[in-house]
Amino acid sequence: MFDALTERLTGVFDRLSGRGVLSEKDVDEALREVRVALLEADVALPVVRDFIAKAKEAATGEAVIRSVRPADQVVKITYDGLVEMLGGTDEPPGLNISLNPPTVIMMAGLQGSGKTTTAGKLALKLGKERKRVLLASLDTRRPAAMEQLATLAKLAEVDSLPIVPGQTAPDIAKRALQSAKLQGFDVVILDTAGRTTLDEAMMSEAAEIAKIANPSETLLVADSLTGQDAVRTAKAFHERLPLTGLVLTRADGDGRGGAALSMREVTGLPIKFLGVSEKIDGLEVFDAARVAGRILGQGDVVALVEKATQELDVAKAEAMAKKLAKGQFDLDMMAEQLQQMKRMGGVEGLMGMLPGVQKMKKQIAESGMNDKAIDRQAAIISSMTKEERRKPDILAASRKRRIAAGAGVDVAEVNRVLKQHRQMADAFKMMSRNGGKGFAQMAQMLGGMGGGPGGGGGMMDRLKTLGGGKMPMPSEKEIEEMAAKLQSGDLKLPGLGGGLPPGFNPFKK
Asked: What is the pLDDT of residue 507?
């Protein structure tokens, strides 16, 4: 999401960073390019006008800090403007969970927006937070809608309201609330019916359900790929329903992001979640500061750590660390690393969370490093026998031809995988020569992860290394130190040309 906007803005700021002093003409030219970039990203025109007016006032007013390089000040002003446009930092991200259960969450939206799937994703997320969730389908019109939600409930490992044929949507809502109270559920999610277009009957039914359920959260699910149509839909729903937030689906396929950038400003409603994949776990909490950081090419290290915390199998990580300490690295272990990368969002997902990667996008594309390449490598390893994966040295020409045929690739690709494995194995052997101390430390740190019994302190305290120790993650104290260095100019971020003004901390959630 926001790929095109990120590329345009990064280019603008790179050109500014090459200049020591910016004139008023330079600032006007930069803001004009920012304006064009926002319009090309399908941001609503009134929103763009308001953004540029505020940015220009900040760039020429008393807020300008003379001790900071002008180019960096423009970056700071743009960042602050994006954060405000996306909803600011005053309101905490996520849901408002009632202190008196059950919390009622009502899902609304047009048919095809991904409403039912989002209900299942939300149930999974709440289930992981140790909430007891009940899913209830109020869609009596769409064929198999109730069965679809029941299937999603099984995938999310939560309960679903039993289907009773012939009941109306308001009757189902009453039954769901009664069941939730009697059975001690923490959260009940009501999935209402949708339509292909806005109509009075649909709005009246949704309004009646809202009156019966009195939900703590009424979330409008909108398809981000529809751009400004999604904004108009949100306005129409908000006029009839007491909406409390928005969920934008298919965000992974929206390269422009105009809907997300316009939604808050036009409707006044916070964006609560982004749907980032079709998988049941493809739902991200929306955080304005972190999304603004992504747009400016600074990545999202916090999201990367959270993803690793969720996806990393501690037992497998400890077992792998012990083998690596002995200099052992076979093709099964390589396949596990490839699978772990896929679980964490693949190459594109991981690259989008790393600062400065936007500038390397062309080189990454030319290198052929993408999710399809990972799939091919995994297929090649899967085509080998157990013995071949343990002892790749036995792979003669005839075996390589068989593996290539089984994976549907050329022998040259098999050789590339073997070469890559050999290089990685050699690197791990060198690291293990120091008594395996580095790997032992990694195993100890990984063993302290997880939120279960005996699971240590906060996330940052528990996750100190990621990716075999190649990417050290900062502690909370180190984050504050990095923020101070950013403000003083001692720490420079790729693509931003230097330090950043006081108060700007892209690492802090």
From this structure: 40
The token pair that represents 355 in the structure block: 């600062």
Beta strands in 231-292 (DSSP E): 245-249, 271-275, 283-285
Q: What is the pTM of this model?
A: 0.61
Contact residues for 426 (Cβ-Cβ < 8 A; gap 6+): none
Task: Identify whether residues 268 and 373 lie together within a single domain.
Answer: no
Q: Which amino acid appears at position 470 of this protein?
A: K
pLDDT tens digits, residue range 415-435? 988 988 888 887 777 766 655
| The domain boundary residue, chosen from 259, 278, 296 | 296
Q: Which of 216, 195, 97 is nearest to 141 (CA)?
A: 195
3-state SS class at 53: helix
Kindly give the pairing relationship between strand 465-466 and strand 217-223: unpaired
| CA 364 to chain CA centroid, nearest Å | 20
Q: Are residues 316 and 189 both part of a single domain?
A: no
For residue 390, the model assigns a pLDDT of 87
Who wins on pLDDT, 490 or 29?
29
Q: Examine residue 320 and state whether it is found in any structural domain, yes or no.
A: yes
Rounded Cα distance, 450 and 309, in Å = 7
Q: 412 lies in a domain?
A: yes
User: How far, in Å, CA of 444 to CA of 431, rounded?
Assistant: 17
> What's the distance, CA 398 to chain centroid?
44
Residues 151 and 184 in one domain: yes
The SS3 of residue 405 is: helix
CA angle 260, 264, 270 (to 5 degrees): 100
CA dihedral 344, 345, 350, 352 (to 10 degrees): -140
Q: Give me the amino acid identity at 38.
A: L
Terminal Cα distance for the chain, rounded: 20
pLDDT of residue 360: 54
The first and second tokens of residue 466, run together, are 């990621």
Domain that residue 164 falls in:
103-296
Q: Do residue 128 and residue 263 come from a single domain?
A: yes
Counting Cα atoms < 13 Å in the Cβ hemisphere of 127 gives 21
Same domain, 339 and 234: no
∠ Cα 181 182 185 (to 5°): 55
Helix (H, G, I), strand (E, B) or coil at 454: coil
Residues 159 and 232 reside in one and the same domain: yes
CA distance 400 to 402: 5
* CATH number, domain containing residue 222: 3.40.50.300
Is 497 a domain residue? no
Element (H, E) at 288: helix 288-295
pLDDT at 451 over 60: no
Number of domains the chain contains? 2
Inside any domain, residue 179: yes
